[in-house]
């Protein structure tokens, strides 16, 4: 439909599945936020595909709660709270998950087909913090002392965010 005053200066659609994914061993991620879709000034999201037997790595979001909508496959998510508390949940297509901000969590594909889910945040920019990358970039002696791990474990950590392992 043509408006008499012309088109709005804001584009209200984004073809997320036409966007090139971030491909990693074990899956892929497509992120949409205000950096590639300016109309998304208060929301960010990602479509995540995790291959069978793989994990969306242990990570956390420092400023936002995370909502997930499970599109395909079967998932198991463990959420870590303070005080050494944790809880594990199983999900399948059509389920919704939730993680309060700051709580570490990972999602495992426990099915025999790709796990596909949407992560959504009330934020103009998608951000997450990788536990793997954080430990890899920390002083090795400190990590070894606090986690009681050896040099081989330290050297296996990735200084780049793996997203899916």
Folded structure, characterized:
The chain has 165 residues and is mainly β. It contains 3 helices and 11 strands; from the N terminus they run βββββββββββααα. It has helices at 131-136, 140-147, 151-156; strands at 22-24, 27-32, 44-50, 55-60, 66-72, 74-80, 86-92, 96-99, 104-109, 115-121, 129-130. The strands form 2 sheets. Strands 1-2-3-10-5-8 form a 6-stranded antiparallel β-sheet, with no helix packed on it. β6 (74-80) and β7 form a beta hairpin. The longest helix is centred in the last third of the chain and has 8 residues, at 140-147. It is globular, with a radius of gyration of 18 Å.
Number of helices: 3
Q: Percentage of helical residues?
A: 10-25%
- Regarding quaternary structure, what we see is single chain
Measured distance between first and last alpha carbons: 47 Å
* N-to-C order of helices and strands: EEEEEEEEEEEHHH
- Shape category: globular
- From the alpha-carbon coordinates, what is the Rg to the nearest angstrom? 18 Å
Strand order of the largest sheet: 1-2-3-10-5-8
Name the beta content range: 35-45%
Poorly predicted runs of 5 or more residues: none
How many β strands by DSSP?
A: 11
In short:
By secondary structure, the protein is mostly beta strands. About 10% of the residues lie in helices and about 40% in strands.
